[in-house]
Write a structure and sequence with these properties.
By secondary structure, the protein is of the alpha+beta class. The protein has two domains: 2-122, Probable inorganic polyphosphate/atp-NAD kinase, domain 1 (Rossmann fold, 3-Layer(aba) Sandwich), CATH 3.40.50.10330; 125-296, Sandwich (Tumour Suppressor Smad4). 28% of the residues lie in helices and 34% in strands. The protein has eight helices and 16 strands. It has helices at residues 10-28, 43-51, 66-75, 105-113, 143-152, 155-162, 167-179, 239-245; strands at residues 2-6, 33-37, 58-64, 82-88, 118-121, 124-128, 131-135, 138-142, 186-190, 194-198, 201-207, 229-235, 260-265, 268-280, 283-295, 300-303. Strands 6, 7, 8, 9, 10, 11, 12, 13, 14 and 15 form a ten-stranded antiparallel β-sheet that branches. The longest helix is centred in the N-terminal third of the chain and has 19 residues, at 10-28. The protein is globular.
Length: 304
C-alpha cells in the first residue's frame, strides 16, 4: 500500500494537475494506494504522523516541493519503519539533485513503483527557542534564511512558477537582501570542542545534501548517508566580493575563496550577536540568536 501525500498548490497549482495524471496511472495498473491532499501549513505533517502511528513498515510518496517533504519528515514517528518516494513538484527541488531523479514526474513514479534502489538517508534536527524541526536538505541562519523568508510570501514567485521560472525569484531577493545586510558577529561551535568566531557573519548552513537555494552546491562534499552534518560558514566578506563569489557556488567552486569555510560535525551550535532569520528546507524557523543542529539517530529509506 502506497500513502501519497500530495500538495496540490505546489509550484503554483501544478501539483494538482500532476496528481490527476498519477492517479490515472495508479488506477490503470491497479496499484493500491491512499491519497492525502494537503490544505495548508501543517497538514502534511499531520498526515505523516497519522500514517506512521502503526508499528508496521509504511511507504510514503511525497508529491510536492522541499517544503512538503520538510513537513513529512517533521511528522514521521519512527524513521526506521518508513520508506519515502519523492515526486518533486516544487520550485527548488534541492532534495532530488543528489539522487539523479528523472526530471519527468511520471518517470519518477515508474521508479517508485519499481524501485532501482533503496538507500538510507540522514535527517537533520534543528533545536531553537520555541521548538524543534527536522530537515531533509538543510538549515540555515542569516542571509540564506532571509532569502527564504521573503520568498515564502513573494507574489512574484507565484507568477514566475506558472511559467517555470520560479528560481528567478530567489535571485532577485538575494540581491535585495544582500544590499540590506548589516554587520553582525557570530560564533559557531562544532561538536562542543571547536569554536569559530566570525566578526561579520553572513550565514551558516548545516546540510544533509550538497545543494540548497535552488541549486547552489554549498557543501560539495556532503554525503546524505554518513551520519554527519556538512557545515558552511560565510563571513568577513564585502558585499561586492559576495556578488562575485556567489555564482561559483552553483558548481561548488566557492570554497577556494577566503572567508568561506566548510566543516563536518555531528553537532553544531550557532550563536549570533543579534537574532537572525532561520530556515529549515526553505521554511521559516523564526528569528533566533541561538540554534543547535544535530542528526536524528535513525535514517529513513529513500527510493531512488
Amino acid at each position: 500500500m502506497y500513502h501519497f501525500i500530495v500538495n496540490p498548490a505546489s509550484s503554483s497549482g501544478k501539483g494538482a494537475i500532476l496528481w490527476k495524471e498519477i492517479e490515472k496511472k495508479l488506477f490503470a495498473e491497479q496499484i493500491p494506494y491512499v491519497v492525502y491532499m494537503t490544505d495548508g501549513d501543517g497538514s502534511a505533517k499531520r498526515f505523516a504522523e497519522d500514517i506512521t502511528k502503526t508499528d508496521e513498515d509504511v511507504t510514503i510518496v511525497v508529491c510536492g516541493g522541499d517544503g512538503t517533504m520538510n513537513e513529512v519528515v517533521c511528522g514521521i514517528r519512527d524513521f526506521s519503519k518508513v520508506t519515502i518516494g519523492c515526486i518533486p513538484t516544487g520550485s527548488s527541488n534541492d532534495l532530488i539533485r543528489d539522487f539523479g531523479f528523472p526530471k519527468d514526474p511520471m518517470k519518477m513514479l515508474d521508479v517508485i513503483l519499481k524501485p532501482n534502489k533503496i538507500v538510507p538517508m540522514d535527517i537533520g534536527r534543528l533545536t531553537y527557542t520555541g521548538g524543534v524541526k527536522n530537515f531533509s536538505v538543510s538549515m540555515g541562519i542569516g542571509y540564506d534564511a532571509a532569502i527564504c523568508h521573503e520568498a515564502l510570501n513573494s507574489k512574484i514567485k507565484v507568477a514566475l512558477n506558472k511559467v517555470g521560472l520560479g528560481k528567478l525569484t530567489y535571485l532577485g531577493i538575494a540581491l535585495k537582501q544582500l544590499a540590506g545586510t548589516k554587520k553582525i558577529s557570530g560564533t559557531v561551535i562544532l561538536d562542543d570542542e571547536r569554536e569559530i568566531h566570525v566578526d561579520q557573519l553572513l550565514f551558516v548552513t548545516g546540510m544533509v545534501h550538497r545543494y540548497e537555494g535552488g541549486g547552489f552546491m554549498f557543501c560539495p562534499e556532503a554525503d546524505y548517508a554518513d551520519g554527519m552534518l556538512d557545515v558552511l560558514i560565510v563571513g568577513d566578506l564585502s558585499k561586492e566580493r559576495v556578488l562575485r563569489i556567489l555564482p561559483t557556488a552553483l558548481k561548488g567552486k566557492h570554497t577556494r575563496f577566503a572567508g568561506i569555510n566548510t566543516y563536518r560535525a555531528k553537532k553544531v551550535v550557532v550563536r549570533t550577536e543579534v537574532p537572525m532569520p532561520v530556515h529549515v528546507d526553505g521554511e521559516s524557523a523564526g528569528i533566533q540568536s541561538e540554534v543547535v543542529v544535530t542528526q536524528e539517530e535513525k535514517q529513513v529509506r529513500m527510493i531512488i
